[in-house]
Amino acid sequence: MKKKGYDLLTIEAVRSLLNEGTPIRKVARLKKIPETTIRNWKFNYVFNDNILTIERKRQVFELLRSGLSMPKIAQKVGLTYNCVRLYALMILSKEEYAKIKVLDKQLSNSSQLLSPELAYILGVMYGDGYFGIGQIKLGTKDKDFSDYFSQVVEQWCGKKPSQIEYTRYDRPYFDCYLSFKKAADFVREVVQERKKVPTIISTSKNLYILTMFIKGFSDSEGSITLVPKWNAAYIRMYNQKINLLNELRLFLINLGFKESKVKIVLNNKAINGPVYALRIGGRDQLELFNQKIGFTIQRKQQKLEEFLNRDKK
Q: Across the chain, what does the average pLDDT equal?
C-alpha cells in the first residue's frame, strides 16, 4: 500500500524513526519528506464529516469569519484542532486561511495572564520541563504525568501538544512537547534562569495559584519516602537552588502547613554541587498535602494514600 506516492518501505522507515523518539522535523530532514506528510502518517489525520454536525459547522464557520484562531475554535466548539483545520481548508479561500494561520502563531492575550494552568506549567518547568527550539517539553517515565501536562497546556493556550512513547534504559518513556514558538518564548521569559520563583507567582495573593505551582513542581521533583521502622513518611522536593526551596517553603506555610514540619535539608552532594530537599513530615502534614495538592502521578499518589490509610487503621 502506498500513501501519496511513497512506498511501504519508506513509510515503515519513517514510523520506525518516530517510534524511537526522533522529532518529526528531524525525520523530515533525514528522509526529505514534508513535515505535514509525516505528521499525517504519525497521527492518521483524516477528515471525519460525522463529527462535524450541521450546528458545529455553523459555529466553526462563524468563529472562523470572526477571526478567532483555530486552536481557540477547537477548544470552544469541542473538536480537535486538526478537524477545524481541515474544515477551514474546505470553506475558506487561500487568503482567508493564511490570515487565520498567522493568528495561530500568536499567543493570545488571555494566555499571557496568570491562571492556574499557567502556574502548573511554570512549576513543571522548574523540574522535568525544558525548552526545545520553539518548544515547551516534558520528558517523563510516567504516562499519566505526560497526559495531564498535555491537557493543562492545551487548556492554557488552545494547542494540543504532541506525545511520543519510546523505550529508554529498557523501560517506557514519554515525551510531551508543544511546538509553539510564541508560547515557548513567553514561558522562557517568565522563568528566565530558574534561580527563583517567577515574580508573577511570588506576588500573587491567590492561594490556588500557589497550590498549582507547587503541584507542578512536586509532580516533577517530588517523592514520598516511607519509614516503616517509625511508621512515618516524608514528602521531599529536590533542587540545587536553596533560595527557590525557601520560597516554596513559605508558600506551603501560607497554605496552612506548620513551619516546624516543613524543613530544608541537605539531600546529597553531586558533582556540580549539593542537592537540597524541601521535606514535609508528620501525618497531619501529609494529610494536608493530600487534600490541598496531591500528586498527578498515580504511583506517588497511591503510595501517599496507602500510608495515610494504613496509619488510620
A: 87
Are 257 and 303 members of one domain?
Answer: yes
Domain that holds residue 66: 54-104
Q: Is 170 left (phi over 0), alpha (psi -120 to 50) or beta?
A: left
> Quick one: pLDDT at residue 312?
59
Is 90 exceeded by the pLDDT of residue 49? no
Instruction: Specify if 214 maps to a domain.
Output: no
Of 89, 104, 119, the position where a domain reaches its end is 104
- pTM here is 0.73
E-assigned strand segments in 180-218: none
Domain count, the chain: 4
Q: How many CB atoms lie within 10 A of CB 235?
A: 23
Measured CA to CA in angstroms, residue 3 lies from 9, 11, 44, 188, 308 at distances of 11, 8, 11, 39, 55
Phi, psi of 273 (to 5 degrees): 130, 170
Tell me, what CATH number does 190's domain have? 3.10.28.10
Q: What is the pLDDT of residues 58-89, one digit of tens each?
A: 888 888 888 788 888 887 888 877 788 888 88
Render pLDDT for 98-138 as a digit per residue (tens, 0 to 9): 777 777 788 988 899 999 999 999 999 999 999 998 899 99
Cα separation, 229 vs 27, whole angstroms = 52
Are residues 256 and 293 located together in one domain of the fold? yes
DSSP code string of 132-176: ETTEEEEEES-HHHHHHHHHHHHHHHS-PPEEEEEEETTEEEEEE
Please tell me what DSSP assigns to residue 57. Answer: H
